[in-house]
């Protein structure tokens, strides 16, 4: 049995590829990032809404960073993404 359920694969893959492309680096996410994506899927967060929230949170995080290439993860941005999801729900 695969660690990734087949039903989750499209959602996971979509969010993974979106985030890695946004970052411009990396080949895969951490186990905690995959777990977080699965939680969002289980909450039935639409993938388009999630990707917009991730993009906004990422732009904010990188704008606030002093590093030219900050190390950003979905888990590290969880609070900001949740804030953006809350705004989208209003």
TrEMBL record:
It comes from the Bacteria. Residues 64-90 are annotated as: Disordered. This is Uncharacterized protein. It comes from Nitrospina gracilis (strain 3/211). The lineage of its organism: Bacteria, Pseudomonadati, Nitrospinota/Tectimicrobiota group, Nitrospinota, Nitrospinia.
